[in-house]
Amino acid sequence: MLILGIDTSCDDTAASVVEDGAKIISNVVSTQNEIHKKYGGIVPELASRMHLEMILPVVDEALHKAGNNGFKDISAIAVCHGPGLIGSLLIGVCFAKSLAYVNKLPLIAVNHLEGHMFSSFLEDPVPEFPFIALVVSGGHTNLYRVNGFGKYNEIGKTLDDAAGEAFDKVAKLLGLGYPGGPFIDKIAETGNPLAIPFPRPILRDSLDFSFSGLKTAVLNFLKTNSSSKQDSSLVPHPSSLPDIAASFQSAVVDVLVEKTIEAARTNSLNKIVLSGGVSANSFLRKTISKRAEAEGFKVYMTSPNLCTDNAAMIASAGFYYFNHGKHASFGLNPKAYLPLGSAYSQP
Ligand code: KG4
Ligand code: ZN
After folding, report:
1. In the chain, which stretches have pLDDT less than 70?
2. What is the pLDDT of residue 341?
């Protein structure tokens, strides 16, 4: 069974055709990085305008690459309806509703966080329920106990910035590009993670996260170490960038790994699923693999291109909704705030 997935939740216009929730037939992502990088962050109004321009060619390309004869072989259309930027979500949801209506196909609404989680179902082997899921992206840092499809129990979340947001903000302070995560990942390869003892915000007896203090610690470090400079810029000398990047990255990774391992331990589960843009981070992948192996846990990670936003993950989750007979109505509206769990009772 082929499902067309669509995601326009943030700044990527994405469409994909997936077979039986597992096999990617086509996967097209049009990023807007070039547009937003000069502002150092996403400008919501520009994002929705670009989605409007790109949605038709992106969906067209996904169908074309899948070799489909239009919608003839497609069984359903799955769309991300939240959480995300409301203007961006609106484009994808309205477009998906129109396609479903015109082609007389079922419409399926998928939560973006659930989509990220289901990106692991596009890899081999697929994780078996129950497992611990860490969804770590530019907008979210959440831990779930996942007991089955649609059975998500949130056991931890960030109280302030998401981990990806911290990467992006620190990259901006360091004068690196946007989005910052991949730049820090790369430059940290040659740095010493022990060079600067940035704080590890652990929040005892809780699986919650907090990253805003860490971002401030980097800012204070730059202020303290920029006194000899003539201009007011805090951007450090290029020679010190690798150590700062590696030290910041290792602080974020230590906390993510510590809490995730703790979640698996306290829930007596030995399977961990990593997803979301930050799970593409090479140091996180290395560190959690080592820790999990030592604890006897198995970690499921998707290939880096499926960690960041894509529509294959939406089509994959959509397949499970379809099998459970969970279709959305044409009254579907996007929601900027949509905690995971509420998506299961389809609108
Ligand atoms: O999942 P995603 O594409 O979009 C959201 O749902 O937010 O995640 C984007 C985030 C950005 O903050 C980006 O800097 C971060 O993921 N990211 C990374 C890496 N690749 C992407 N962070 C650290 N290391 C990476 N290699
Ligand atoms: Zn995402």
Report:
1. 68, 227-232, 342-347
2. 72
Number of domains in the chain: 2
The pLDDT of residue 250 = 98
Residue 345, pLDDT score: 47
Q: How many A from CA of 180 to the centre of ligand 1?
A: 8
Beta strands in the chain (DSSP E): 2-7, 12-19, 23-31, 74-82, 107-111, 131-136, 141-148, 151-157, 271-275, 298-301
Using CA positions, which residue lies closest to atom 8 of ligand 1?
277
- Is 342 a member of any domain? no
- Selection from 57, 60, 55, 73 nearest residue 19 by Cα: 73
Cβ 280 under 6 angstroms from ligand 1? yes
* Mutational test site, ligand 1, from 30, 137, 282, max ligand atoms within 8 Å of CB: 137
Same domain for 311 and 252, yes or no, is no
Q: What is the pLDDT of residue 230?
A: 54
pLDDT tens readout for residues 255-267: 999 999 999 999 9
State which residues have CB under 5 angstroms from ligand 2, the bound ion. 137, 309
In which residue are the tokens 């450090």 written? 236
Shortest-distance atom of ligand 1 to CA 137? 8
